[in-house]
Amino acid sequence: MTTSKSLSALAALVLLGAAGAAHAEADWKRGRVYYRMVCTACHVEKGGSIAPSSKTIAEWTAYLAADKHAKGKDTVKFYVGKKYRDSVKASNKAAEKYADVAEQDLHDDLKAFLSKGAKDGESPASCN
Amino acid sequence: MPPRRIWLSIVFAVGFALSAWADEPAPAAGANPADLKKILKSTADHGKFKELEGPFASGPDVTKRCLECHTEAAKQVHRTKHWTWEFLNPESKQRLGKKNVINNFCISVPSNYGFCVTCHVGYGWKDANFDFTSETNVDCLVCHDTTGSYKKIPGRAGHPAYEEMEVPPGSGKKIKPVDLVKVAQNIGKTSRDTCGACHFFGGGGDGIKHGDMDSSLAAPDKALDVHMDATGNDFSCGTCHQTSAHDVPGSRYQPTAADRDGAHIRGKADKTNPATCQSCHGATPHKEEARLDSHARKIACQTCHIPSIARGGVPTKTSWDWSTAGQKGPDGKPLIKKDAKGHVIYDAKKGDFTLAENLVPEYMWFNGKVNYTLLGDKVSKSDGITRINWFEGSADDANSLIWPVKVFRGSQPYDPVNQTLVTPHTAGDDDTSYWKNFGWEKAIATGMASVGAPFSGKVDFVKTEMVWPVTHMVAPKDKSVRCIECHQQDGRLQHVGGIYIPGRDHVRLIDLIGFALAGLTLLGVLGHGALRYLSHRK
User: Fold this and answer.
1) Can you list the positions of beta strands (E) in B418-459?
2) In this predicted model, what pLDDT tens digit does every residue of B385-428 receive, in sequence order?
3) What is the DSSP pairing of strand B362-366 with strand B389-391?
4) Consecutive H or E run containing B3
5) SS3 state at B94
6) How confident is the model at residue B7 (pLDDT cuts 50, 70, 90)?
7) Mean pLDDT computed over every residue of chain B
8) How far apart are CA B405 and CA B408, in angstroms?
9) Measured between alpha carbons, how far is B173 from B175 in angstroms, rounded to an integer?
10) Interface predicted TM-score (ipTM) over 0.85
11) B116, CA 20 to 30 Å: which among A54, A88, B490, B501?
12) How does DSSP assign B292-327, residue by residue?
């Protein structure tokens, strides 16, 4: 391997290592707080809450992968994103608390909680 | 690749790597942000221990590994009520604890061990011969799991699922086996989830027993509990129930009703209960309204600061009538009825229930002394209501405060000939368990035989009451009980005797003097004003 290729590979490893470290392990408890206090808080006002246990792990995984919120009117990622958190943080303490959390991290946290709380998850969860 | 591009990619990569650390406090040398959380959480990463690489066939196998380092941990656990399920009240000399008391929920533990011990911090308690000296039977994981995936399965004597199984049998609901390696490698401090796995579900389900503890406290907002608020103080149970040597303070058998010792101070050897409000807030916490501190001499903090319980969307049971159990539906199967919200209000296995959300507590004087009606104590239907437990206290007692309580009312089986409460064998898959055969005589005969208690063979039902102190779900101060809610007739404290509460109570002479003084004051002011007005005109 030439020196240039070695250095490039090293750079790629550092890059991947940092990215991997930053998203090492999802925090399902943080995902739970966000789901209940941001997602559910809004859903209760606008049509009803959705219990994590109302879907299977596969259904939640597919839902998050499709990234279609409100039947495709907008995206799930928008509601996990910093822009949305900034827009509601004045009235929502969870959005305020997690205002600076990386979007991907929070998305992973949410996914971890929904997998755990799904109908066939380790701990099927209600809205409470 | 041109050298410039190589160096650019290195600079970019290093820059990206550094940026990943940028939004965290100064990390330890060599730590990245993802690891930092783990580093700050504990001095030991159990994921790095070869001893915990498994495989593990059972929970006790994990415990053996834990004890190789934590050599005294099991001995500490053995000394606690969480292990013994027994408590000898030093004053009343009553032998209490879950193992011995009778309640008016699922009634009692003996002969139902395999199911009840789902909440025991041990493995293998399936009958009265359980070895309480076994160290490897201590369940470390049930309190120290952080993954949320460790669950003991009812009917398995305190064990989780080691293989896929149907729970309950015949239900079609499959439980996956627990990953013991994952749980063991991720153990940590206790949490609202680990304590709540049992304490939120007391009495057979979410929120049933206590009312001030249910699954909504796993991730509560400020309105539900100012201390546990997941977006604020974020207390775990252990923040208040400061535990030493695995012994968790805060007993319901010998509660601290009035803490006159004030705030605990670091470095000072405090031997009083660290879980009281005063142990943090002191005896005079109302800085803006000193008058409220004088109230606290007679009123528990909880009376004003917990306006209602079951506020998190989970109802609590308020009554349980075992006498109606055993009904079958038109299809011949055990009947189950639900209310409009889907909550079970009748179950053939258990009888009728009533439930409530936002339940306003009842109030009574309480000095911390609790007495129980135990198995063998005489009970008579003619007495009206049998008190499963009762709180001592009065207005004249310096150690008494007015406390909020949940009073749980029920009707449960008793032996009308021997005039005792009974311990029925309810849970189990055998021919005598009530939930299998729906026959009280067989179920009670088995239960009473298991503890060597006499049973006449006759069964009747007696009305019962049980009292639970209310102390969780502390509301924000602007949601506290308002003055007028007590200072009025028919207010919250209408049944609390021995104390004069202005607005609720009236003494004609005092009222007359008060109104007279107010009238005279008004006359004086008006007269004074009139005189000044007239003298000014002259």
Assistant:
1) 420-421
2) 999 999 999 999 999 999 999 999 999 999 999 999 999 999 99
3) unpaired
4) helix B3-22
5) coil
6) low
7) 92
8) 9
9) 7
10) no
11) A54
12) HHHHTTTB-HHHHH---B--SS--EEEEEEGGGTT-
Distance from CA of A71 to the nearest CA of B (A): 27
Q: B475, B222 in Cβ contact below 8 A? A: no
Q: pLDDT band at A126, cuts 50/70/90?
A: confident
- Enumerate residues 6+ apart whose C-beta is below 8 A from B247: B76, B79, B80
Please indicate whether, in this complex, the C-beta atoms of A93 and B222 are within 8 angstroms of each other.
yes
Q: How far apart are the first and last CA of chain A?
A: 57
The position carrying tokens 């012994």 is: B247
Q: Which residues contact B54 (CB under 8 A, 6 or more apart)?
A: B180, B181, B184
Q: Is A23 helix (H, G, I), strand (E, B) or coil?
A: coil
Chain A interface includes B164 (CB < 8 A):
no
Beta bridge partners of A74: A69
- Distance from the Cα of residue B278 to its chain's centroid: 19
Task: Give CA A14 to chain center in angstroms.
Answer: 25
Task: Give whole-number Cα distances, B202 to A66, B107, B154, B344, in Å.
Answer: 40, 12, 13, 16
CB contact under 8 Å between A122 and B221, yes or no, is no
Residues near B28 by beta carbon (within 8 Å), at least 6 away in sequence: B36, B39
Task: Express each pLDDT in B185-210 by its tens digit.
Answer: 999 999 999 999 999 999 989 999 99
Rounded to 5 degrees, φ, ψ at B184 are: -65, -40
Which residue in A has a C-alpha nearest to residue B176's C-alpha? A122
- DSSP states of A74-127: B-HHHHHSHHHHHHHTTT-HHHHHTTTS-HHHHHHHHHHHHHHHSTTSSS----
Could you give the CA distance from residue B412 to residue B465 in angstroms, rounded to a whole number?
Answer: 10
B32 contacts A22? CB cut-off 8 A: yes
Predicted local distance difference test score (pLDDT) of residue A14: 42
pLDDT value, residue B6: 54
Residue B287 sits at the vertex; the CA angle it makes with B285 and B288, to the nearest 5 degrees, is: 135
Q: Please state, in angstroms and as integers, the Cα–Cα distance from residue A55 to each residue in A25, A28, A112, A116, following that order.
A: 23, 17, 14, 11
DSSP characters for B458-490? Answer: --EEEEEEEEEE----PPPGGGSPPGGGTSSTT
Domain ranges for chain B: 3-41, 49-249, 508-538
d(CA B56, CA B135): 17
- Spatial contact of A26 and B22, defined as CB atoms under 8 Å apart: no
How large is the average pLDDT for residues A34-49?
88
Main-chain dihedrals φ then ψ at residue B467, nearest 5 degrees: -110, 135
Q: What is the pLDDT of residue B2?
A: 52
Query: Does A11 sit within 8 Å of B10, measured CB to CB?
Result: yes
Quick count: other Cβ atoms within 10 Å of Cβ A24? 15
Q: Does B8 have pLDDT greater than 90? A: no
Q: Which residue of A has its CA nearest to B230?
A: A33
Q: Least CB-CB distance to A21: which of B10, B34, B176?
A: B34
